[in-house]
Amino acid sequence: MQNQNPTEDKTKEGLKENRTEKFLQGKRVNHPIVTGFLILALAISFFFFLYRFEDLCSRIKQLTAILLPFIYGGVEAYMLRMPCNFFEKYLRKWLPGKGKKYAAGLAVVLSLVSAFVVLYLLISMVVPQLASSIASIVTELPNAAAKASEWIQALLADNPVVENYLLTAMEAVNQRFQVWVKSDLLPMLLGMVDGFAGTVSAVAGFVMNMIIGMVVCIYVLASRKVFARQARAVVYSILKPRWADALLAEVSFADKMFVGFFSGKILDSAIMGVICYVFSLILGFPNAMLVSVIVGVTNIIPYFGPYIGAIPSALLILIVDPVKCIWFLVFIIILQQFDGNILGPRLLANSTGLSGFWVLFAVTVFSGAFGFVGILVGVPVFAVIYDLIRRLVVLGLGRNGKLDVLCADREEKVLESPKGRN
After folding, report:
1. What local confidence, expressed as pLDDT, does residue 145 receive?
2. Distance CA 268, CA 296 (A)
3. How far is CA 278 from CA 109, 273, 289, 291, 416, in A?
4. How far is 74 from 258, CA to CA, in rounded Å?
5. What is the Cβ-side half-sphere exposure of residue 240, based on CA atoms within 13 angstroms?
């Protein structure tokens, strides 16, 4: 083929340059228009967000209800991830050459079997004791009421003035009780009867969601490494490498924070329950198993847990023996001091890095916003937020040349995270 005329090539290149320049000029001219349009669109979107906020919340609740099996399965998979990794690590060492490809599947099976065995052992040991404790409480209630009546009669025998006041108060209480039964109790019972079908449906739905969640858990555990690679690929495809690295580092830190907090807290609560049960048997406290379960379970709740568990436990003992109730309160105070000053710090090992004030703040705010779930996850979530804000503050002080605002020892603590991050 013959080459084209150089003059024609230069003419075409010149036309291309002119078109490119005109296009760029058009972009520069339209840039304020596009910016104004985007601002207007954001303002309209924000207005409709506020105007339809309740409808949006209801839609989110509907979506959450649909995704509940996946939420349950994700939580179960997250809790079983560590034992699954542990089993897979050692199976790859022990299995022969071709058997290594089955290590991942066997690890999932072993982690699920281990979880079911632990749950079965706990239920088989705790439930019979709880049933006997509840039965003994029901048996002791009439005797406790009779003892209380005898004590009141003996007290009033020599105090006619106190007896007069007490009879007046009892009459007023009796009248208010009758009014409450007619106005509140009977409608509430009728509502409970009417809502029984809804309760059965809710329980059936919960069981079905848990079953589907278990299937989801198996899939997530089996594909956890694939999901992790896909998530990293999505992050790096959207963000620049610097910001992607920062985001993944923050996610890794949050994961370590949650795992460290919950594993330490669960172990701490289990040890507290065992110690409470042993000393309850030694000191002869009634309903030892029930009281120990209450103390151990409520100890998972940060800050307020010991007080929440001590009150119903003391009432259970008070029904049977008031004197031992006093001894139990003394024992529980000593036990909580041991947990707060010795056992808890050693097990948690400053996993959150928060002071007592911020723990109280996190529990109060998150419990008010998200209920019981907020009580459980509030401390590690706020610890992640606190660490992120702290690092941003130090970065801003360094950029403005004001690191001298911080004293030397405080500066070292701020520059390092609770896990030793830079």
Report:
1. 65
2. 9
3. 34, 9, 9, 11, 41
4. 14
5. 2
- Per-residue tokens: 46: 């924000």
- Dihedrals φ, ψ of 268, to 5°? -60, -45
Task: Classify residue 349 as left (phi > 0), alpha (psi -120 to 50) or beta.
Answer: left
Asked if residue 415 has pLDDT above 50, the reply is no
pLDDT tens-digit series, residues 240-257: 888 888 888 888 888 888
The backbone region for 407, taken as left when phi is positive above 0, alpha when psi lies in -120 to 50, beta otherwise, is beta
Size (the chain), residues: 422
The candidate with the shortest Cα–Cα distance to 419, out of 337, 353, 373, is: 353
DSSP E strands: which ranges in 159-220?
A: none
Q: Are 264 and 349 in contact (CB under 8 A)?
A: yes
Distance between CA atoms of 344 and 306, rounded to whole angstroms? Answer: 12
Tokens, residue 148: 């209380």
CA distances from 273 to 109, 296, 298 (A): 29, 4, 10
pTM score:
0.63
Residue 115: both structure tokens together: 């979880």
Give CA–CA dist 61/32, Å, rounded: 39
**Range with lowest mean pLDDT among 115-119, 198-202, 357-361:** 198-202
State the amino acid at position 41 in one-letter form: A
296-311 burial, b at 16+ Cβ within 10 Å, e below that, comes to bbbbbbbbebbebbbe
Sorted by sequence, the CB contacts under 8 Å of residue 362 that are 6+ apart come out as 302, 354, 378, 379, 381, 382, 383
Q: Is the pLDDT of residue 386 over 50?
A: yes
d(CA 274, CA 293): 9
Is residue 107 within 8 Å of 84, Cβ to Cβ?
Answer: yes
Asked if residue 280 lies in contact with residue 292, where contact means CB atoms within 8 angstroms, the answer is: yes
Dist CA 115 CA 215 (whole Å): 15
Q: Is the distance from CB of 360 to CB of 226 less than 8 angstroms?
A: no
Residue 287's alpha-carbon distances to 125, 291, 313, 345, in angstroms, are 14, 6, 9, 29
Longest dimension (CA), the chain: 131
Backbone angles phi, psi at 2, to 5 degrees: -85, 145
Coil, strand or helix: which one is 231? helix
Exposure string (b/e) for 95-130, b if CB count within 10 Å is 16 or more?
eeeeeeeebbeebbebbbeeeeeeeeeeeeebeebb
